[in-house]
Known about the structure:
By secondary structure, the chain is an alpha+beta fold. Helix content is 22%, strand content 27%.
Amino acid sequence: MIQRAAPAYIRKLFGSSSPHLQVECRYYTAQVATSLRPGVYSDDEECPVVDWDKLGFGFMPTDYMYITKSCDVAGNFEKGQLNRYVNIQLSPSAGVLNYGQGLFEGTKAYRQDNGGLSLFRPRENAIRMQIGAERMCMPYPSTDQFVDAVKQTALANKRWIPPSGKGSLYIRPLLFGSGSILGLAPAPEYTFLVYACPVGNYFKEGTAPLNLYVDEDFHRASRGGAGGVKSITNYAPVLRAIRNARERGFSDVLYLDSVNKRYIEEVSSCNIFLVKGRLISTPIACGTILEGVTRKSIMDIAIDLGYQVEERLVEADELISADEVFCTGTAVGVAPVGSITYKGQRIDYKIKSELVCKKLYSTLVGIQKGHIEDKRDWIVDIE
């Protein structure tokens, strides 16, 4: 049995001399979870033992998660609460396990240069989840409840937010059918859950340029499908394509449209942009690609900086003549592409200090850290 000194919230509950202060970790975790309320956060003062300089994009359990359920006819969600981060129980007949009725989002909490904590455009994530829920026949939390849940989760786990410049706290809201269902139909009950994890760079290459492979055999999405929403069902089908590409030394896969097989759509976990002079082009969101929050933000920033931005059908052949290619996403940030292999031909891009994507990313990070004015109310301060 593992023993350690109890944290501050245990000392407050039992008193500093209580024999309960040395207990098995899992025991006091389970006991305190039942008493937490929204707005009551961890006051653990000790910093987690993390090498922030080596932080990648791997799972690391933090202290708390937010959870609520919807089980009435109207689909209203109960007032949520914070619980200690623990495993959840699901029936084998849960809708999410049998029919994949689930959505997830990804947003981040940042530690600004002045020490304050903030979120970046969480309302956009709430709206995107609502759009996805409509497509998947699911009830959904209101925008205010979604944002409040993200805030609570970030504050409850604030000791896990990396120092400024070392990473961020990745926050994962989940919405899924937790009620039992046998026939193909919407589940009778839904769970909205939010957990968090400190992260660094998404790709193992870190900040090095990506090496992409255009896959002509596997497709991420098709017209009329759910490619345009952040459904959990969109991701497992691309694992084979990613594995094949990485076994050949590539960072990730760039997918083509499933009808004509000539237009680029997106990478497995991020959107893509081409730069030609002062023109920045990105595939149009027409139901088969996910409209990323970072994608939208970079487009606005580019316009502010005097670039022409267009959403359109982008032919794969245009990759050959592009001056620069880069990817965007909540997890990846803004990542330059060093090469793309298409039809057996490797296209190399010059990586120089004055890359357009570096200028765009510098502005984005400046807004997130608070040393560039936020003119669009993108930043939500939480402390």
